[in-house]
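Hi R.,

Here's the chain you asked about this morning:
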Amino acid sequence: MSKPFGLLLGRILLAVDVSPWLRPDAATSPDRAFCHVYRRGKGQAQMIPGWPYSFVAALEPGRTSWTAMLDAVRINPNDDLTTVTSTQVREVVDRLRLAGQHRPEDPTILIVFDAGYDITRLTYLLADLPVELVGRIRSDRVLALPASARPAARTGRPAKHGPEFALADAATHSEPAASTRTDTDRYGLAEATAWHRLHPILKHRGNWADHAGPLPTIEGTLLRLRVQYLPGDRNPKPVWLWCSDPDATAAEVDRYWRTFLRRFDIEHTFRFFKQTLGWTRPHLRDPHAADRWTWLVIAAHTQLRLARNLTHDLRRPWEKPATRPYRLTPARVRRGFRNLRPMTALPARAPKPSRPGPGRPPGSKNKQPAPHQPVGKNPHNLHQHS
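And the predicted structure, written out as tokens:
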């Protein structure tokens, strides 16, 4: 990854998300899990068997369809999404350090997550890394304000949690610590409000059932983002974000919600992988073969990204000319890549012609059918993204 890529205001910006390789008809393929897939229309979400993959990508500042895909891990049915994500992020950060992309004196790495991740538990698992986490949380969550100082004359155990802060109940909201108002071209007036040192009330159950000792208090900054309007005349609802910085300033609050909007650039990469590069097109049975094909697609996308300044804009008659040639979309770079290929060196020899094997004789039955594999069901991984 080149140094300017993935930098926002002097810091590296990463996005983490899950995209499924749907395999609903592959009854003989092992390690399939139910993937949460969104469809058009209200209430059209479905659970379809497939192979969910967790991706980590570096983002660029500004509106763009380019991302630098850094890692991809297939999530098995029995895996915990939070544990897999924390291990994956830790390995990516270690590789960035080893490659000299991040030094001890550099600003912390900013990582953004969408809804579906346990952002507070990820903060606890990655507390020893130079990272800041920003993620979306559900609008029905109930957090706790910091406990007030105990009077000197009172004895007994000090309070661990303050009053409850219900995101859906405005009566429980205290005075905000910071707020910003920004005029945007796409959303109109954007108003961000922040509350400091809010934390979830943890219990010895779920992912914290096996935690040894007292449960930690994971404090962070709660952000509420309101916009004036959305594209398509949709009703704008407040978006709640939680960041690992417990005392974010007004400038940092403005940077956090802008960073979260940049997370959606990875959705363009997923669509380009599936519709253009054919990531989910092969009908593979072995999930390990799917892993190898996934990395081949990532390598092809990396070649296109590195060659985007060398290709020319071969636009269709109905397409608008690119205002900045060095900001061509991935689809246009792929279109002009064929003119660049004859000028590059050929490290491999020409492929030898071959004929396909005879296969099973017509009319004969398969005497060794592949066994049918059940679809795994992990209650911790039911809410995965498309």
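The chain is about 20% helix and 25% strand.

Let me know if you need anything else.
M.
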